Amino acid sequence: MSTIIRTDSQLNPLNKDPHTNENVQTENQFVAEEIKPASIQQQSESFKESDTQIEKTEKQQPTQLMIDDVIEKLNTRGIFQFWILFTFCILYTVLCAAMLYPSFYLMDPSFICPGQGDGFTEADTGCDAGCYIDTTSGRRTLTDTLNLYCNNQQLRIMSISILYFGCAIGNIVIGAYSELKGRRLGMIVTWAFSIISFIGVITSYSITQLMIFEFALGFFIQPASTLVFVYMSEVSIGNYRQYFCTIIMVFWSVGELLLPAVAYYEYNWRLGFTYYMVIPAVVVVILLYFFMYESPQFLVSQRRFDETKQVLLRIASWNKRTDQYAIIDKYVEEQRQYAIEEEKKSSFKADQITSIYFHQVFCLPKLLKITAAASGILLAINLIYFGCQLSLSTISPNPYANQVYLGIAEGSTLLFSNLTTTRCKRKLWSFIFHTATCILCLFFLFVETDDGKIAVAFFVRIGNVFAMALVQIYLNELFPTPARAVCQGIVYFFGLVGSIIAPYVIEWAVDIGINQIAWLGIVSFLGSLCCFFLKETYLMPLDQELEESDLKRFKKMNVKKTATAPTEQ
């Protein structure tokens, strides 16, 4: 889509000087000339004539409608948007449980050593002869069910990483799939297979089966979180786009508060998975199937104009804006004509410029630079976040209480960020909050009391979540529509490398004898440097096309592919 920019030739379409009425030889630039003497009345008449010409031109060439204009007319805070918001909030609560369950169900076990007492861990004497795992609480976890401790400790670490490795691979594959088949189908397919994966984890009786279904769970469930924000950014506009995205993230913290409660009060981990993950996931799939339509912005990018019209009419009906049908017709017709004109100008088919594929991103320098920098900052943020999740027991002896404190910190931060992130410059404040988080992590080198560590962890989570909230919004604004989903998939892939390596970074800290969270801060500081390579998107409209240099390069790539193809005579 294009925006009509009024140049001087449009303001003066006859290309004549309004004072002298003589031809001016100029091409879209203002030329200063000496004006001949004329009476005030003659000048006044010439100005009136020029104004009349401008008015006629504006009537003949009305400003082209953008998708945001249409969404605004159909009400960006209507019933349709709130149904989608409700569905995504449930989805994000379940997603939180799926991503953070290793903190409680694959946690380091506690051991009892006869004659020495209890509370021992694998790091001290827990694995010595005669010691055994403490099951006096009656709680069963994956760790003790599958014997993932002592000699099998590395298998436990590997099982945590493989969940996040599945997330990373899934973001690439499902991101590309959603660009081909659409946001709606991508969401429904991924969550349907997530339910199967949940059931596979629940029925696991061997480490091999567990790892297979953990990989599948990560592969299918995490990409849906990317599509949530892609879709929400395409069916809402302006500040409401930011508000809705922030509210969805708040429900992640709701999941953080529910997860330790379920893990603490439901002693059987298989039942806990069923109640908190499988049943709500089924509800999400049903809601997606009946209430989620395909993104109109995606349909326009694919030149599927009839479907675009049908979706916009349904949204108008949901939001009680049936009086805006004429706007929908006008928008769809304009996009159809625009596509025809672009196809005539182009040396290759229109459908070849509607989507950017994974391998093509690495051939477009400007798009690649933004993608790489965004990946670096998200990797660092995820490393601190998931590293702290796996270090709950180092904050204080009660990991369930620690999770509640961190959940409160995260929820309150997200609520506050809803009022502030819409007014924050994305680039500057992403740098400030991530850097501050890294510095706060270093405080664990000096604080020794449990209360002090809880307080520091509370503020670490605040800084980390504020940076994450900004980056989540930032990612929805950085990329043009044809590349948005696949680029976000790439960014989330490399971002999730932070969660994949988090258990190994924790082990690295233990080996060198430094506080685990402090080490996370030191390693993650490199993410701050990535902010310098990003562009500012604050108050800027979403890009509908690639930047000019990348677009030219992309067209050349496609021209080379079609150069040897037979042409019609």
Automatic annotation (TrEMBL):
Compartments it resides in: Membrane
Regions of compositional bias (Basic and acidic residues) in chain numbering: 46-59
Highest rank taxon of the organism: Eukaryota
PROSITE patterns, sorted: MFS
Region (Disordered): 1-22, 40-59
Record-annotated membrane-spanning stretches: 82-101, 157-178, 185-205, 211-231, 243-267, 273-293, 428-447, 453-474, 486-506, 512-534
Gene Ontology, cellular component aspect: membrane
A Pfam family annotated for this UniProt entry: Sugar_tr
InterPro entries reported in the protein's UniProt record: MFS_dom, MFS_sugar_transport-like, MFS_trans_sf
Membrane topology per record: Multi-pass membrane protein
Biased composition (Polar residues): 1-13
Example GO molecular function: transmembrane transporter activity
Domain Major facilitator superfamily (MFS) profile: 94-539
UniProt keyword annotations, A-Z: Membrane, Transmembrane, Transmembrane helix
Alphabetical list of PANTHER family matching this protein: SOLUTE CARRIER FAMILY 22 MEMBER
Protein name as catalogued: MFS transporter
Source organism of the structure: Tetrahymena thermophila (strain SB210)
